Amino acid sequence: WLRLPPELRRMILEELYLLSHEQAEGDSQQRKRKRSGYVTVCREWQFFLEPFQFNIFTLHQSDLADFDKILQGHRRRSVKFIWLRLELPKYDCNSCGQQESLREVRINEILFTNAVWSLFSILSSWVKGGDSGSDGITLQLSAHSPSDALHYCQELKKRIGYTGFWGLAPMKRNQILRNEDSHGWRRGRQIYPPRDEAKLRVFGHPRGLRFDFRASRARSLGSLPKVKVVNKLHIARQFYRHFSIPKALEPIIKSLPQLEKLVYEPWRGINTRRFSGPEIRDTQHTHLLQNVVRRHKCLRSISIFESFSGVIHGPGIKKPDVTLGRSFADASLNLSEMFAAVNVDAKDVFYAFWPVKNPRLAPSMTWSKMERICLSSGLLNPTHYNDLIQVAASAALNMPKLRCMELWNCGMHSSCIFRYYECQKGQHIRKVRLLSTWHGKLSKSVVSRWR
Questions:
Q1: Are 86 and 61 a contacting pair, CB within 8 Å?
Q2: CA–CA distance, 385 with 416 (Å, rounded to integer)
Q3: Distance between CA 307 and CA 265 in Å, rounded?
Q4: Beta strand pairing call for 185-186 and 189-190
Q5: CB 95, CB 202: distance < 8 Å
Q6: What angle do CA 347, 289, 365 make, to 5 degrees?
Q7: Can you tell me whether residue 261 is helix, strand or coil?
Q8: pLDDT per residue over 1-23, tens digit each?
Q9: What angle do CA 232, 350, 446 make, to 5 degrees?
Q10: Distance from C-alpha of 235 to C-alpha of 312, rounded to nearest angstrom
Q11: How many CB atoms sit inside 10 A of residue 175's CB?
Q12: Does residue 361 surpass a pLDDT of 50?
């Protein structure tokens, strides 16, 4: 081995890593275990392969103690991505159609609190640039019960073991588990929607999973430790469980002083006879924008996408919350990127620029740092698309650094996308483009406004 030229040895190691990555079956943790033997061959192999072993971590609450022991010294610099997958207790058919009891809610909240506070306690001792790479660490949070995929939400079988994010191989077709003919499912299809209580079993109450300060880690630490090595927080839509904004995500974000990017993909709240889940979630999301995003000093990019299911949430179209859209505009004034879809409408984000006398128009409604925007809007239809695009042009005049703006809509009968973009960075050549299923054209006044 040592007689080979260094360039050839590196090529061999690169090919070895690629082959082991492509051929190994199972999730990312199993693939890492199969590759761990290569690290023990010699120091050179260890130096080359070890960073790949420690760049991505998928952790359950039971893994945190070992994670703290293993990730010491130079190994911390290899970490790029940490996914804390909280596993809630299992349940059977005796309770799958019932909402969680108060006792179950408390158990879930204590598990959640202990897991997050333990992880933050570990990461609080890491130093950015020293213990972590210069790009910082991405933290992803999710919560689910392994039983969620075995009853009314069997579509989760395709997602519960999926680790196709961040360059990991997706689940193969023959690995997808067969759905059982029960709980409203027939031959792999959901024929009957779940009852409200069964939905709440998986989604939790719309107020969301929250911290319980009676948990042992919360009592011993006193307050949630500050973590300076995390610069991106991702709440993915892989699972249905809600997180409370004021009682969970707000303290988490405030404990991430170097956070630069927030990707938030919540599921729509569940409507029942006793409460309106969508309204509860919209109120919390407004709180997130007004009291958290707006006040965070380092945050530069935010992405919000509300997911929904026609089977679970019903076929009706939910009207975007006006207050939420306006709060998104006010909270984004110091951002460089903002992306929102479904629960936020572009017409509400640009509320201050509609050609009507607006008492709420603030003279400081200027996005001095904004570079990229992507928003959805129901007004991108054959009747009103020119109106919205012209208002967007008025808003763009208050974005001196804007490089790209996309407005889009995808409905049952029509779809449309409008794009304003910089042809090449550093040049002053910009273009606008409209694509629609009705072959719409920009009016002369719209073209003039964008010029």
A1: yes
A2: 9
A3: 7
A4: antiparallel
A5: no
A6: 55
A7: strand
A8: 778 888 888 888 777 777 666 55
A9: 120
A10: 20
A11: 13
A12: yes
